[in-house]
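Hello forum,

I keep getting stuck at the same step: I have a sequence, I want structure tokens, and every attempt I make locally crashes halfway through. Rather than fight my setup again tonight, could one of you with a working pipeline run this one for me? It's a single chain of 170 residues.
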Amino acid sequence: MYTRHAIVDTILGELTIVASDEAIVGLYFPHHWYLPPEDSIGQRVDARGDALLETAQAQLTQYLDGDRTSFDLPTATNGNPFQERVWAMLTEIPFGETTTYGDLAERLGDRALAQSVGQAVGHNPISIIVACHRVVGGDGRLTGYAGGLERKQFLLELEEPANAKAERLF
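Reply #2:
Ran it on my machine without issues. Output:
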């Protein structure tokens, strides 16, 4: 297994993109809440010298510039079965839309799972690409985000439909 990482500069700060063989397995912010052990992300490489990391960097830049609404990258996660179910649901949330932890828990069959859903969302290893920022609190407020609430707000505003922006008072 060939695991490596690149650190790329973005409008959100330096992001660490981790690839293992032919899949993206991690995307982490500076001061991310749940960083993998340093020895598990492989050697640091220049993204420009690695086709997969270069593609991931390019798509991430396009997304953050407002020129891309989805990612076309091979990804792989390594969570427990519950986490994998939650992370799969995150990939189904359309660009520009949000859902709540409670709604995801209901889709799993039990609204009481909302806190467990929140924990799984918080441990999503592929931030932005697997769009955990699209999950908000039951009252619509921004709640925990492993990359910080300011970044979550930025990503949600980036995806906000033009008509909603025009109606917003702030």
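The first strand starts at residue 3 and ends at 10. If your local run keeps crashing, start a new thread with the error log.
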